[in-house]
Specification:
It is built from twelve helices and four strands, in the order βααααβαβααβααααα. With 291 residues, the chain is of the alpha/beta class. The mean pLDDT is 95. One of its GO terms (molecular function) is transferase activity.
Length: 291
């Protein structure tokens, strides 16, 4: 029996907010999120396309705000050409990177997928207008997390990256002149401070809420990371319906059994983070979070 094509599920929300956890849980329940993915369970094809979109205006994941230049009236020809390029790519052999060989033979085009599918990339938060132009009936899953927990997670990751890079540099320093470094010593100086991470979280929050408030209510599923940890069965049960997945309760219970509620509001166990949070309670409360 012929099936109609399925519109994608696009995940948005700040980095370190639970997009990876949510994507993996839904993948286990039947949502196709790509054949080739990175360590964060993000489809490589869409990662590359988001990087390409952001680079057209000098934006990055940790400085995404300037992508607003792409939505200007003057940049309309750029968006038109970019849209044409990506649409062609979706039905070219490049689609194999997302579909895999088997699904490419079956569907021939990403736009013709006939099963529940989607992709996660926090940067979708800023590139969403472009993707809704490609997939006008797409639905959106938005996950958010307490800003202080996000800022601390970003800081830990950024500091670890600097340590690893410095150690590698010291090891190869005597021959560094032979092959110049392709990257810097920090993946994100902004995120080395809690304030930098929190301000980035605010940018993602502002953009997500602004974009999603313009969509029909039934096209958006909003969830808080903390709610997902406390009530994983309830949240996943709702999400399976939203994503068009038919899943038995027993399977949902089995998949969510490993979710660890202890990770919710981790900052409350750290005096430094509690002090930081209290000093910024008004900013947190503006997004519905207490200090």
């Amino acid at each position: 029996m012929h099936q109609s094509k399925s519109d994608p599920i696009i995940f948005v929300g700040m980095h370190r907010s639970g997009t990876s956890l949510l994507g993996r849980l839904l993948e286990q329940l039947g949502l196709f999120v790509g054949s080739r993915k990175d360590e964060n369970n993000e489809a490589l094809l869409f990662l590359k396309l988001n990087t390409w979109l952001l680079s057209q205006c000098g934006a990055r994941w940790d400085h995404p705000e300037v992508i607003a230049d792409l939505w200007s009236e003057e940049a309309a020809p750029v968006i038109s050409a970019s849209t044409d390029y990506v649409k062609d790519l979706m039905s070219s052999p490049r689609a194999i990177e997302y579909l895999g060989i088997k699904k490419y033979i079956q569907f021939r085009s990403i736009d013709n997928i006939q099963c529940p599918w989607g992709w996660k990339d926090p940067r979708n938060t800023f590139t969403l207008p472009f993707w809704l132009n490609i997939f006008p009936e797409a639905r959106v899953v938005f996950i958010e997390r307490h800003g202080v927990d996000v800022a601390e997670s970003l800081r830990v990751r950024a500091e670890r990256s600097v340590r690893i890079t410095m150690k590698r540099y010291e090891h190869f320093k005597p021959v560094a002149w032979v092959r110049p470094k392709r990257g810097g010593f920090s993946e994100s100086p902004r995120c080395l401070s809690l304030e930098g991470g929190l301000s980035l979280w605010e940018s993602y929050q502002e953009r997500a809420h602004a974009r999603l408030n313009g969509l029909e209510v039934d096209r958006v599923f909003r969830v808080r990371y903390e709610e997902l940890l406390y009530e994983p069965f309830k949240i996943l049960k709702g999400l399976t319906g939203f994503c068009g997945l038919s899943v038995a309760d027993e399977r949902v219970a089995r998949v969510t059994s490993s979710v660890n509620a202890d990770r919710a509001y981790s900052y409350r166990h750290n005096p430094e983070l509690i002090e930081f949070s209290n000093a910024r309670k008004d900013r947190l409360q503006s997004w519905g979070y207490t200090s």
